[in-house]
């Protein structure tokens, strides 16, 4: 295949990882991002060994590790009394088994590393450039911006998230509400919170889940509280929330959970509906348009594999384009390597929500455990899987 010019809609983790992987293989890349600046937004993201192995292939794993936290273990705790139901080894065992670490990263720190790596290889990043339409014909793939500008290349990659404009060509319908809501806050690690920061994990209970883990050298604690709420109608990622909402939702939960809620800063406390997408049989159109990350397979967060799956997509797509003789062949290879896996993760993530928010937390783990490791997700290598 002659050197391709790839247009990427969306400058998030998946879009930038794809840009870096493509640039390293000699392709020209333009990334179009709707935001006006690369802001210090978002909070924590889990990068499991399968994601960190991609970063090793791309040569930026050391930089990510330097700004992340590698936990020794994760603890699953009971909602009533806080006792540990299960401890999961996340330290040296991960490196020994999978040759890559399990880390917690701040999204903004990861973003800075990816932007610098893309720019260093000549990737063109366009801010304030929301994509409003895409199309393809015999002359190429076309991407239209809100100001009417049309960019043309050989391939358009829709990495534009849950509300993807590119996906509308495949499925002209919005994402569906999963019945789950989430609250998040990022707080300093005080002496009172040190024990929880050093032993991250979650508290599980009927219809609810509280997740906590450290960031930036253990100086910050990322808090995420999940509940179920039918009939959600508000839309947005950063809807302001009140601490009293969490106090009501988690009334009767143990003292450590109340401690986490009390630490949440209302100036930095947000809530959102967890929406998702149903699996598609194909992500591609006319051999010139395809999807990646949440645009392709937005999932619930209950396996912690959303970002990791987008990162895997990025490397597999770049490898498929590099290996194929034509773009249609490349996209066929890409889908063959990715759709079955991501569809499985979407389903298992939904199922894991029910396991972790079951009516009797004492039963958790008593049957055969189905989590991201036992399902084999950590062992996947996007850099060597057949394309």
Task: Give the structure's gist in a few sentences.
The chain is of the alpha/beta class. The chain has helices at 13-24, 49-58, 61-66, 92-98, 107-120, 194-198, 243-249, 255-263, 294-297, 306-323, 327-356; strands spanning 5-9, 28-32, 44-47, 73-78, 84-89, 103-106, 124-126, 131-137, 140-145, 150-153, 155-158, 176-188, 201-205, 208-215, 220-228, 239-240, 269-276, 289-291. The chain has 11 helices and 18 strands.
Question: Mind explaining what this structure looks like?
Answer:
The chain is an alpha/beta fold. The chain has helices at residues 13-24, 49-58, 61-66, 92-98, 107-120, 194-198, 243-249, 255-263, 294-297, 306-323, 327-356; strands at 5-9, 28-32, 44-47, 73-78, 84-89, 103-106, 124-126, 131-137, 140-145, 150-153, 155-158, 176-188, 201-205, 208-215, 220-228, 239-240, 269-276, 289-291. It has an eight-stranded mixed beta sheet. Strands 7-2-1-11-18 form a five-stranded parallel beta sheet. The chain has a three-stranded antiparallel beta sheet with strand order 8-9-10, with no helix packed on it. A hairpin with a 5-residue loop joins strand 4 (73-78) and strand 5 (84-89). Helix 1 packs parallel to helix 10 and helix 2 (49-58) packs across helix 10. It is globular, with a radius of gyration of 21 Å.
Largest sheet: 8 strands, mixed
- E-strand count: 18
- Overall pLDDT score: 94
Morphology: globular
Count of alpha and pi helical runs: 11
- How does the helix and strand content classify structurally? alpha/beta
Stretches where pLDDT is under 50 for at least 5 consecutive residues are none
Ends apart, CA distance between termini: 15 Å
What order do the SSEs take from the amino end to the carboxyl end, as H and E? EHEEHHEEHEHEEEEEEHEEEEHHEEHHH
Strand content: 25-35%
Roughly how many Å is the radius of gyration? 21 Å
Percent helix, as a range, is: 25-40%
- Sheet with the most strands: spatial strand order: 5-4-13-14-15-12-17-16
């Amino acid at each position: 295949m002659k050197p391709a010019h790839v247009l990427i809609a969306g400058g998030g983790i998946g879009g930038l990882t794809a840009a870096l992987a493509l640039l390293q293989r000699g392709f020209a890349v333009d990334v179009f991002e709707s935001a006006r600046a690369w802001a210090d937004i978002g909070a924590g993201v889990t990068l499991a060994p399968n994601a960190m192995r991609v970063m090793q292939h791309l040569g930026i794993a050391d930089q990510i590790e330097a700004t992340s936290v590698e936990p020794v273990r994760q603890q699953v705790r009971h909602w009533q009394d806080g006792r540990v139901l299960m401890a999961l080894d996340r330290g040296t065992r991960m490196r020994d088994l999978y040759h890559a670490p399990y880390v917690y990263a701040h999204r903004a720190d990861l973003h800075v590393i990816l932007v610098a790596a893309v720019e260093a290889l000549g990737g063109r990043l366009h801010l304030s450039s929301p994509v409003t339409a895409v199309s393809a014909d015999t002359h190429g793939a076309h991407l239209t911006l809100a100001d009417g500008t049309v960019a043309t290349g050989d391939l358009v990659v829709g990495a534009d998230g849950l509300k993807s404009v590119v996906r509308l060509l495949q499925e002209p319908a919005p994402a569906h509400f999963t019945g789950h809501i989430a609250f998040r806050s990022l707080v300093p690690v005080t002496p009172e919170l040190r024990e929880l920061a050093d032993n991250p994990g979650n508290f599980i209970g009927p219809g609810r889940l509280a997740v906590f883990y450290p960031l930036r050298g253990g100086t910050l604690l990322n808090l995420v509280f999940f509940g179920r709420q039918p009939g959600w109608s508000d839309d947005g990622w950063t809807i302001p929330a009140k601490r009293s909402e969490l106090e009501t939702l988690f009334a009767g939960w143990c003292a450590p959970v109340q401690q986490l809620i009390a630490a949440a800063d209302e100036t930095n406390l947000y809530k959102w509906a967890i929406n998702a997408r149903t699996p598609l049989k194909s992500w591609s159109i006319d051999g010139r348009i395809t999807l990646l990350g949440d645009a392709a397979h937005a999932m619930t967060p209950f396996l912690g594999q959303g970002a990791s799956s987008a990162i895997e997509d990025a490397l597999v797509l770049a490898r498929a384009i590099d290996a194929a003789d034509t773009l249609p062949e490349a996209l066929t290879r890409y889908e063959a390597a990715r759709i079955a896996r991501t569809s499985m993760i979407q389903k298992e993530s939904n199922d894991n929500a029910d396991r972790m928010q079951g009516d009797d937390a004492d039963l958790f783990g008593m049957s055969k455990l189905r989590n991201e490791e036992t399902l084999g997700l950590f062992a996947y290598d996007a850099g060597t899987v057949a394309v």
